[in-house]
Amino acid sequence: MFMKCLRSKLPVWAALCVLVLCWLYIFPSYRLPSDKDIAEEVLRQGQVWTKNQTGIDTFRKVIMECCDPRKMFALTKENSPIGKVLWYDGELYHSRTINNDTYPLFVKEAPLKVPLKRCAVVGNGGVLRNSGCGWDIDQADFVMRCNLPPLFKDYTADVGTKSHLVTANPSIIEKRFQNLLWSRKRFVESMKVYGSSYIYMSAFTMKPGTKPSLRAYYALADTSSNQKVLFANPDFLKSVGKFWKRRGVHAKRLSTGLFLVSLALGLCDEVMVYGFWPFSENLNQQPISHHYYDNILPDSYFHAMPEEFLQLWNLHKSGVLRLHISHCTEIQNSNENKPH
To answer: What GO annotations for molecular function exist for this entry (predicted)?
Structure first.
């Protein structure tokens, strides 16, 4: 009688699910390597790196087929006409229909002449501090930076000075510039360090980010800034997210850095990546800050930085991109520019 009652309360399928979950917890099919294991593999690889043109072409073809970054990375009048419904990529059931107010904010067509030659994607990792990579970064034909990073003189030897595209997440507009509700002057002045860069904003990812992004657009437009705001296409961001999820990046949302690397792999002949090392110690087992300018940790609920790094590391090992995670020297730079 007791067993009959138990079976009625706990169906067989539910019991099996519990057993499977317990098994996967104890013996998961995949475990992320420890920080130490990753560092040891990187050290074993050494400084040797060979560009793999076939691998580059193959990966570019795959990412073009899934995401078409050349045409779709930014909202344009060409890919987003009046009447199109934009679905926010970071929120379910939220959308915005492009109308006569929104449409004029978009550039006419994809703004970048492709293929770009040598591109540098610069993250903000603490591994950049004292790296001496600034000279190398500035040799690139096109430099992408993440989230309005500081480019003070104290940092330029490590991070360079050139910028051609820089992302500006709405959360930065909110926290650093109080949503531009009280003053726009400090924001406009702070943007001058990025020269005539494109300012790439995800205005249609989360609904609360739309108004701050539009204020940033008007702040620059009203002051005749030489910077042009590009709004990230939520369809592109969503397709890139699915692309990496199928390859093992399990996170609520990709980091800005991985979005930019994905963009670069679709636009550029050669991709060099700097400042991507999401661990608290460098290869010499010395503690490093999370960013080269502060030690504020990201929300682990949203991002899966170690998983992202392993994807980039696999691309590095296969010669599709070059990942710089130690010191840069001019000798290395000259060697890299030699044909392989």
So the answer is: alpha-N-acetylneuraminate alpha-2,8-sialyltransferase activity
Domain that holds residue 302: 37-336
Report helix angle 234-245 to 256-267, nearest 10.
Answer: 100
Per-residue buried b or exposed e for 11-35, using 16+ beta carbons within 10 Å of the residue's own CB: eeeeeeeeeeeeeeeeeeeeeeeee
pLDDT tens, 20-34? 444 433 334 446 788
Q: b/e per residue, 177-209, with b = 16+ CB within 10 A?
A: bebbeeebeebbeebeebeebbbbbbbbbbeeb
What number of residues does the chain have? 340
Indicate whether 43 belongs to any domain. yes
pTM: 0.87
Domain membership of residue 27 (yes or no) is no
| CATH number, domain with residue 102 | 3.90.1480.20
Residue for token digits 């001496």? 132
CA distance 110 to 218: 21
Spatial distance between the Cα atoms of 205 and 94, rounded to a whole number of angstroms: 9
Cα(325)–Cα(292) distance, integer angstroms: 13
Q: 266 Cβ partners below 8 Å, 6+ apart?
A: 60, 63, 64, 67, 68, 69, 70, 73
Residue 139, in any domain of the structure:
yes
User: How many domains does the chain fold into?
Assistant: 1
Tens digits of residue pLDDT in 87-103: 999 998 999 999 999 99
Tokens of 128: 């950049």
Buried b (16+ CB within 10 A) or exposed e, 265-292: bbbbbbbbbbbbbbbeebbeeeebbbbb
Measured CA to CA, the distance from residue 18 to residue 9 in angstroms comes to 14
Q: Which of 187, 190, 193, 197 is nearest to 218 (CA)?
A: 187
